[in-house]
C-alpha cells in the first residue's frame, strides 16, 4: 500500500484562505440579499442635481486652485522690489543679477516651469532660466504691437486689471497653455509684464478624472464662450494642443441653455466669480441636467452635464448601494483580519525587501527558506533578480538594467522637461593593471571601484551600472550640471581614496579613473544612446587631457574639465 504524500507547504496558505473566504462570503451574501430586499421598497429620492453640482464645483475648484497657486507666485515676482528696480533700469548688471535670483527661485516653484518678462522701456522680452546665470540672460526678441504673437504683452499693459488670463499656443513647445499675464507697476506707471503658462494636457485629466461614465460630460468655458476643455476629448491631441475655437453655440442649440451659460460668464471682471453654482433641468438633448460653477479669480465657468438614465440609476439605487457598501466593508474587514497574517504581512515584507534589493543592498529577499508559496516565490525572485539586473562580478546594476531604466527615466522626465545627467567612467590603464597584478586582483579592483562609485550617489533614484569591462555608468535623474559635477568629483575622490597600488599607471601611483559627464533637458526626441554617446565623448576628452579627471560636456558645448 502506497503512503499518501503530505501536501507541500506551498498549498497550505491557499487552502486556508479559500475555505475561510467561502464561509465569510456566504454569510455576507445572505445578509446583503436580505438588506437589498428591504432597501428596494424605500428608494424614493432623486439626487441628480446634487451630483451635477458636486462634479461642477469640484472641477471648477481644481482649476481655480491651480491658477491661484501660479498666480500667487507671479504676483510675488511682480511685486518684488528687485524686479521693479531691474525693469526700471534694464542695463544695470547688479540689478539684473538680483532680479534674476528672485525670478529663478519662483520659476523652480511654478508647475509650468516657465516664466517670461517683457520690459516696457525697451520692449525686450526675456525668458527666465534658472540653469543659466544672470550674465547670460539676453533678450529673446523685441515686442511689437503689430505682431500677433505679442498681443499678450500689449493687452496686459493696456488693461486696468492687475492680471489677465488668456489661452494660446506656446510657440516653443507647440502646446496649448492658460497664460497668466501680471503687470508690474510702480507709482502708477507700468514697468513691464511677467507671464507664465499652465499646460492644458497636464491639468485636463485632473479636472475631469471623475467623468468616467459616457453619460456625463464636463466643460471649461472662458469669458468669451469658447470651450477650452471637454471631458469627452481628453485624448484628442488637436483639442489640447491647438487653438480650436469651439464655442458654446457649436455645442448647444437651445436658447435657454445658451442664455444660462452666457449669464454666468464673467467678461474681464475677475470679481464676477463671487457667486454660487447654479443647476437646471435641460429642456431637450442627450443630457437631462446641467450645473454651472464659477472658476474663481477668472471669468470662466465649469459646466457639468448628466444623462437622464445615469441620474435615474444613481438616485434610485443609492440606498441599496450604501447598504451593500457597508456590508462589503464588513466583509473586507473580516477577510483582512484573517488574510493579513497569512498573506499580506508576509507579502509586505517581501515587497520591502525587494525595494531594498533594487537599491543595491546585500540583504536577501524576505521569505527565502519558507515552506510555502511565498518561500518558493522569494527564492525564485532573488535568483532571477540577481541574474537579470545585477552584474555578477561587481554587485551593481548591469547593462541590461541600465538601458531599460535610462530610457524609462528619459521618457518620464520628458513630460516635465526635467534634467537628466549621465556619468561614464573608465579605469585608467586597466589592461596594464591586469598584466601586472593578475586577473584575480583585477576583479577585486573592479569591485572596489564599483562600490566607491555607488557610494558617491545619495539619492534613491540614482544608480550605477557596469557598462562593460572596466567601464561604468552613473544615471542621475532630475540632476542639473552642478549636481552632476558634484557627483563626479565625489566619485573620483572616493576612488583615489581607495589607494589601490598601480605602478604601471602614468596618471598616478594608484588606481584612478577618467570620467565623462553630460546633462540635458529631457525631451521626447532624445534616446538613451544620445546621453551615453555624449558621456562617452566627454570621457574620451578626459583621457586625451591626461586622465584622472572628468570632463563636462552638455549638448551644446565642446567640453569643460574638472
What keyword list fits this structure?
562 residues; alpha+beta; six-stranded antiparallel beta sheet; 16 helices; disordered N terminus
Structure report:
By secondary structure, the chain is an alpha+beta fold. About 45% of the residues lie in helices and about 20% in strands. It contains 16 helices and 17 strands. Strands 3-2-1-6-5-4 form a 6-stranded antiparallel β-sheet, with helices on both faces. A 6-stranded mixed β-sheet has the order 13-14-12-15-16-17, sandwiched between helices. The radius of gyration is 31 Å and the shape is flat. The N terminus is likely disordered.
Main beta sheet: strand number and arrangement? 6 strands, antiparallel
Mean pLDDT: 80
Write down how many β-strands occur, each being a DSSP E stretch of 2 or more residues: 17
Unreliably modeled segments: 1-11, 41-46
Quaternary state of this entry equals single chain
Strand content: 15-25%
- State the strand order across the main sheet: 3-2-1-6-5-4
Secondary-structure class: alpha+beta
General form: flat
- Count of helical stretches: 16
- The gyration radius over C-alpha positions equals 31 Å
Distance separating the two termini: 80 Å
Helix content: 40-55%
